[in-house]
Amino acid sequence: MDTGESVRITLRSIRAHKLRSALTVIGVVIGIASVITFATFGASVEAEIVGDIETSNAGNIYVFGTPADDDDFDRTLQPVFTEYDIQQLERIAGVEAVLPRGIVQTQSIQHGDQTLARQQVTATRPASFTQNVLVEGRSFEADEEAVVVNERMAGSFSENLTAGERLTMTMPDGSERNVTVVGVVNGTRGEVPVSEFARQPRVYVPIDPFYDSVVESPSAGVRQRAYPQVTLVVDPRAIPETQSAIQTYLSGESDARSLSADDTELVARSGNDFVEEISDVIERITRFVTGIAVIALVVGAIGIANVMLVSVTERTREIGIMKAVGARNRDVMQVFLVEAALLGTLGSLLGVPLGLLVGYGATRYAEVTFSLAPLWMALAVGVGVLVGVVAGLYPAWRAARVDPIDALRYE
Amino acid sequence: MSESANTTVRVDGVSKQYDLGGTVMALDDVSLDLSAGSYTAVMGPSGSGKSTLLNLIGGLDTPSSGRVVVNGQDVSAASEAERADIRGTEVGFVFQTFNLMPRLSAVENVALPLVFDGWDRDRRRERAASLLSEVGLADRTDHVPSELSGGQRQRVAIARALSTDPALILADEPTGNVDTDTGAQILDLFDDLHAAGNTFLLVTHERHVAERAERIVHVEDGHIQSIEDVSGGQH
After folding, report:
1. Is the pLDDT of residue A197 over 70?
2. Which has the higher per-residue pLDDT, A172 or B226?
3. Residues of B with CB under 8 A from a CB of A
4. Could you name the CATH architecture of B7-76+166-181+198-235?
5. Does the pLDDT value for residue A195 go beyond 80?
6. Where does the ABC transporter domain start and stop, copy by copy (chain B) (predicted)?
7. Per-domain boundaries in chain A
8. Domain extents in chain B
9. Taking all residues of chain A, what is their mean pLDDT, rounded to a whole number?
10. Is the N-terminal amide bond of A236 cis, ω within 30° of 0?
């Protein structure tokens, strides 16, 4: 039998039971809309985070130690990368810059009559500040008594800090150091990508004369500065090769290897690795939440199956008539499957825009850029139709098996 | 018995038994031929087996034993799908309760057998509309059954029975649900259609209805008691 005719018969039947059909469709709408909402929201969050990292950090490789026990965060920050290691890393082909980072503890930082307690100060090289990140002023020189602050830090004082102003840093031993702010930045080159999303107020100082964490280098045989973290800026065209060369050095005869505990793994991770890791986490969360939304869809499917069973019973006589005038079992099945599929399709067609709307609202609320998940949308519509068909299969099969003689007698 | 070309229906030694907590013999070794263009009535009290006979000839049911051949096709050996095709193309049913699809218009009801016979939409509509005007309902094509009188509904059902130009029209108490005048009009319509060459098998328990046929087959307790020739007995 041609599909047009079964659609026509179905539409009449749906129209004859408007309320019942509408309620069934609503069940599917809720299911599809929830799936779409969570999927789009997840995709939007992911796109936002990943997009940011990709634009700024593709060519960075981050070097740090991860203890076997992930919770032991202090050991991650052991100063194990010596000056000797840094020199060796600089020699690897493809490495454009090596940016060590050390932590300088302070009791407080004062500006005018305002004091901020326990501020963490990062010691790094002038190369960390490119024109791209400088908002005003300049970078410090390698051995200058000067600091660079980020915008959050500049905004932490009642009057915004600007280049040329002076800060007083109180060191853990109580001594004070007066420094000049020479520049304000909105980030640093080689920053760990995740820090962009929870940017803390930061003060950056030159390694010399502020940073003095020293260890004895096993290779050089002398005491020299060592850092807990190093970022390498590498040639973006040769990231994989450079990354593996760095990893080989770290795992081999580096000072960091000798200085770290045996169960600490030294890793060289690219910006892309971070992107993948973060995407992976977000995707897993999205999948989990969307999975829960699928339950709503299953409930919608049960609604369709239920209404179709009622419909088959109510239309027993019609089934008998159709069979008496030449309908084969599969024609009868088709009529009922089309009805179920139509309810499912209608549900997804209404559910997709609703889901997008709610998803859009959620992204606005979470202040992330809205992005579509076209695959999920196509999937949702497909699943809606499928849900209808699957839910309609058993009722349609029951309909097809109706004995025409009994059906024609049915009141 | 030879199967001549003008035999539309051959019922050959057909039995039908039902298991209703004990075997019930609805038909017991019944044989009956209907020649092309004939008009036969089957009479008998309720439970005599006349409806079973009609269901077997119409392909709605299969015999327990024996053979039913309609227009050269062995209904008793046909698969379920084949019987559906036979019901659609070789047989036209007219029921006591009309059995129209409640949400389809008159023209769509008439066209329904053509849907299952694979006709395209325009040809279906054209055929159905011409049949409706043949039964005098040209102005009711787009009405649904609930907007039609009992007599009009039965006319729609008759037009539907004619739609695939079947070899045989099976009518089960076609006047049972309409008043006497309307019933007479329906029987007049049957006479006209019979005169036009259609083969009729009519099941009834009313003598005056059966007398419109050429012969009356009397059925009782699953047996054919007698075949009465009333040819020429029409008014």
Report:
1. no
2. B226
3. 55, 58, 60-61, 80-81, 84-85, 87-89, 93, 95, 99-104, 108, 112-113, 115-118, 120-121, 160, 164
4. 3-Layer(aba) Sandwich (3.40)
5. no
6. 9-235
7. 3-52+277-409, 79-259
8. 7-76+166-181+198-235, 91-165
9. 85
10. no
